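Aim 2 progress update. The chain analyzed this quarter is reproduced below.
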Amino acid sequence: MSWAIAFIACGAVLLVAAALALVGITHVRLSGADAIQRDGLGTGVRAPRWSLPDPAGLVHTSPPSAPLQLVVFADHSLKSFPSVAEGLREILASGEPVEIVLLLRQPNPMAVPVLAELGLAGVAVLTGTAGLYAAYNVRVGPFLMFVDSAGLVRASSLVNHSWQVAKLHQLAGLPAAARP
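Predicted structure tokens:
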């Protein structure tokens, strides 16, 4: 009988050790710079389909009717990165047919006034869900994703500077065969 109790105790200890090891491995995999580099969807991957109204009631969709759509994931981070806002203003000023939408996880009545203050009044503010962010595999922001009219991701990345926005825009405009 004592051997059975010792065997069960050893088994329980090994089971707890295995569970802790799995939690530790998962934590390491989901945190840090390497994990953030795996965020988003890869180039050529089909982006999630959605249809969402902006505060004025105009419905925006993905895939877009425009040749290119820039989905900005930046719940609270856009004001913290003025250089990213500068890069977005440059895209708006370029006159190119790019629809820019700010996709929020939850409603935020301050988003439209803050965008206007940043000179981004032409950006549509859409309220998605945490599930939609998860479908795009986005955890941190500001994260940008260019989607073409076929619904394919043309370029995506976490950004902190206007030059990164410009580079992503440049990559999104390249034909699929010419991309690195």
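The chain is about 40% helix and 20% strand. The beta strands are 50-53, 59-62, 68-73, 98-104, 124-127, 143-148, 153-158. These observations will guide the mutagenesis experiments scheduled for the next reporting period.
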